[in-house]
Design brief:
Strand content: 5-15%
Structural class: mainly alpha
Order of helices and strands: HHHEE
Low-confidence stretches: none
CATH superfamily: ChaB
Shape: globular
CATH topology: Rna Polymerase Sigma Factor, Chain: A
Strand order of the largest sheet: 1-2
Largest sheet: 2 strands, antiparallel
Number of strands: 2
């Protein structure tokens, strides 16, 4: 697919993402969004009536939440501390 990715860089992310997520989480969001946006262009690959943009947003947030969590007291997104 020769389609241009929705977000070519972190600077192109919406302010609602740039202003709340730390830099590393923004990179995670960007990569997951762009990959899933491309993957789910075909409606047959999506569930229900969700568009590619909606699916990509959900996938991107899920990817961020695997590595970050929002502190309920401060509202800031902090890295999860996992043991590998």
């Amino acid at each position: 697919m020769s389609e241009i990715m929705p977000y070519s860089s972190i600077d192109k992310l919406p302010p609602s993402i740039r202003n709340v997520l730390p830099a590393h989480a923004q990179h995670i969001f960007l990569a997951a969004y762009n990959n899933s946006f491309e993957e789910y262009q075909d409606p047959a690959k999506r569930r229900g009536s969700a568009g590619a943009e909606e699916v990509a947003r959900k996938v991107a947030w899920a990817a961020v939440k695997k590595e970050f969590e929002k502190d309920p007291e401060t509202g800031r997104w902090e890295p999860l501390f996992t043991h590998h």
